Give the backbone structure.
Amino acid sequence: MINRRELIAGITGGVVSAGLFKAVEINPDKMISASNIMALRNLPAPADRTCAMVLGYYFAGDGAPKLVYWDANSEKEANQGTVISSLKSAKGRWLQLHNGVMDFRQFGIVNRQNAADAALKAMISDPLIHRIEAHTSLNFMSRHRFNRSNITLDFNGQTVTATGLETLADAKNNYLSAIFFFRGIAEEKTSISLLRDPLPLLSEIYPVDDSSLYPVGQWYCLESDKVSGHWERKIQRLVQVTECIDETHIRLNYRSGWALDAQSQLHWRKVTPVENVCIQNMHYFAEGQLANSSSQPVAFEYAIYCDVLNVHAQGTFWSVIFRRWNTFFRTEQCSLTNPPSVSWGGAGYLTQQIYCQYGVITDCTASNARHLNDFTASSSCVVKHCHSNGDSSGAFVTHGQYEHDLHFTANSGILTLANSGKPWGQSAARIVINQHHCSMLTADTHVTDLTLTDVHIYRSVEQDNLGILRLNCDGLTVQNCSLSGELTLLQNSQRSIKMNVFENCGFVLDPRHDSTISNLAPDDPFIVSHPAAEARNSINGRSLLYFSHCQFKGTDKDVSLLIKNKEVNFNACRLENVSLILTADEPQKIVINGDSTLSSDQASRPLLSRTGEHPVTWRLGPMQTEVTGDDQLHIHITAGINHYQAHHVTFTHGKRLFTDKAFSRPSYFIEQNNIMINT
């Protein structure tokens, strides 16, 4: 026997609860001890509320001491951890006293030899347990689905495996078959509200038929109508009602990222989300090489405030952390190395978010993976301090299902936006990318109001391709960026009211003008899902494109920039060994001013020239144009209609070539205050 003072003072691990004190007060002199669980179970049934100190699960000091008390009337299902049956009595159970923190060792799981599935299920099912810890390596053989909230799984840096994992009959949609899958409850019934008036951009007040049916605090899966693509919707979010405005309007915790037309429908599906779940400090090793035999550790669906911290995976087939219909979440200090597939759709990801918002992904890494981070129909998320290597499939991607207001800061790895094809809509808006390094950045579909700051795209020998920057000119802002390789600008949408501006950027261009985006394989996903091919190193668009204080350099004598844009302006720029060729496929205007400089010591083409038959308006000066060879051409205008003005231009060396065929009516030719030096 041990006395009451010794029991309370000597509790290993400090597990003391109100229940313990109550039990002790009832039977202060009936306290016993047992060296292990089997010894406890072999004890004759004691008096009700007798307390026992168990010194270990298998033997004293094995790391699993516990306090229990005897409930003589209990017939709970025994799990031999928190509920322990007696071998001497069919009725009655030893019930563990705890403060809500539980350990797999309390169930006799001390290594990977015994599967930890039953212990996990028992602990998750106990509403009094709010934290589950592992202090040894673990193995799981089942894929678990829980709708439990307010629980933390802390593996304390231990290794988790899935040796002997059950094989699924169908590989399709197995990306939700995680070992730890937490899923809220979504009703099947859907309510529909009709927009009698257009819903403007950034709306947070939404019309409904009867606001009393949408109580404050309730969560919903909110979806707008399909557009034309198979998965194409402008809104798919897990949202909460925050205010009842009037009988037919409610406020949500989501500002619409896209405007909706009148007569559009909104679909509302009531959800009870799981919340406040945290999975952390795990090293996960997967063994299966196929979609139905491999696994991933974590998935969340219909979830809020659910976080994943410090989870490191190797060899997982599906996404290490998969989220669908999540709002408010964090993924921090996680990694993926060498997944078995980077070609199967949905496979080889570190983290994937579908219909998610208000998330933070930070300090994560991936090596030889398909994607480090994937957004589909998601918004208002931040990705920062994340880095990928061996990322020829693209480290950071968005599918193009109307993602909006995403921020990427201080990351490295290939980045592509709205790049999964027409079935998703190929659209994204208000994406901000800061301090990014990569060998390829493509955002050339319907990407609106994109901002790049301090982004650097460089040639990659390891990936056997050149640096590639391809952008849609629809409210584009590019500042303090650099590129070595290909610059191709397109305009596939015209939704923004902003100008397209490049400021203080540097470009080292290669001479290629083929119609592929790189020398990657022709079946590469970056090429397959792109719009109609455009020649590399070309500027294509309908609206004004403005370069200010930018520098262009050519890598050899054949480098040129094909300008198909309707209007382009170079202000205070320097172009060295780069020929500008206006294609005149439609009327064009080019402005070069602000004391810009065009120079060449080796160009095989004129520094300025044109093709095509449509009119071109030239506004040149103040500027300088300098060549070294006597036969090199500053400007070559011999065809088409031309409206030419050159003021305060200094031409040094070389030649200029104009013909009367290029200045028939209604053309004009005006030069004023120009300087010719050996020209």
Summary: The longest helix spans residues 18-26. The first strand starts at residue 31 and ends at 34. Helices lie at 4-9, 18-26, 37-41, 117-125, 525-528. The chain has five helices and 62 strands.
